[in-house]
Amino acid sequence: MDKLIITAAIVGAELTPAQMPALPVTARQIGEAAEECCEAGASIIHLHVRDGAGNPSQAVDDFANAVDEIRRRCDVIVQFSTGGAVGTPIELRAAPLRLAPEMATLTTGTVNFGDDVFMNDLASIEYLAKQMRVFGVMPEIECFDVGHIANAVRLAERGLIDMPLYFDFVMGVPGGIPGTLEHLMHCVRSIPQGSKWQVAGIGRAELPLAIAAIIMGGNVRVGFEDNVYYSRGVLATDNAQLVARVARVSKEAGRQVATPSEARQILGIPPRG
Which helix (H) or strand (E) holds 234? Predict the structure, then answer.
């Protein structure tokens, strides 16, 4: 079993400081949060950014500023979100890819997202996949439902993305696949042989699914984008607290946690120069 790769989704696009006072918003705060998460055991930072007013942003400069702050502090893999906020045009969602991050998310299907709809039609999915190919970015296949796995496989069969694939099962979003062990096992059974995967449990599903992934040989995503609570009714102090818990549980279970350089090796990402 490979060492555990922990991804920290530290910002998100929907959360506000009023809901979570410790939410990192500025580039400096994002850099500091990334460093704290790296020290706690994270090897990937899943990155959303905000503009000067604290609103969700897909502006290239805002991503560049955040990456600079992260790189000044630690060597984590920086994974860009190409989801943006719900309703962001596809050209804006793709724009930060020109910075050539090591990884970026590629959501391979449309999903109801609470009261909204996160649109990912085939043309948009293909556009993002082609842009990632142009800039040498490894896609993380973000799946909110089982049919999204089949869409990703079809992209690979057409040569738009490369096997083996790395899947992220986002589970527990209202309108998407429920955050249960039974659904996680079905997703894992549905991916092509040789693929790797992680789970991002939303809200109360975060910790149970993280524990399951540790045991099953998968990887784990935690952070304020997915869940702001450490326990029932108790807000987490910071993103690093959520990362540290998963790292501690994994080590107690006998599975060591990957460093950023080890995660690159596991995922087939070239070492940073």
Answer: strand 234-235
Give 226-237 pLDDT, tens digit per residue: 999 999 999 999
Question: 12 CB contacts (<8 Å, ≥6 apart)?
Answer: 48, 223, 224, 225, 226
Quick check: pTM over 0.90? yes
User: Which domain covers residue 60, as residue numbers?
Assistant: 6-267
In a domain, 232, yes or no: yes
Beta strands in 144-192 (DSSP E): 166-171
In 3D, which of 221, 24, 3 has the Cα closest to residue 34?
Answer: 24
Beta-carbon contacts of residue 82 (< 8 Å; ≥ 6 apart): 93, 94, 96, 97, 104, 105, 106, 107, 128
Is 167 within the bounds of a domain? yes
| Number of structural domains the chain divides into | 1
- Return the CATH number at 214: 3.20.20.70
Q: Is residue 1 part of a domain?
A: no
Cα separation, 219 vs 217, in Å, equals 7
Displacement of CA 24 from its chain's centroid (Å): 16
Cα angle 236-242-245, degrees, rounded to a multiple of 5: 120
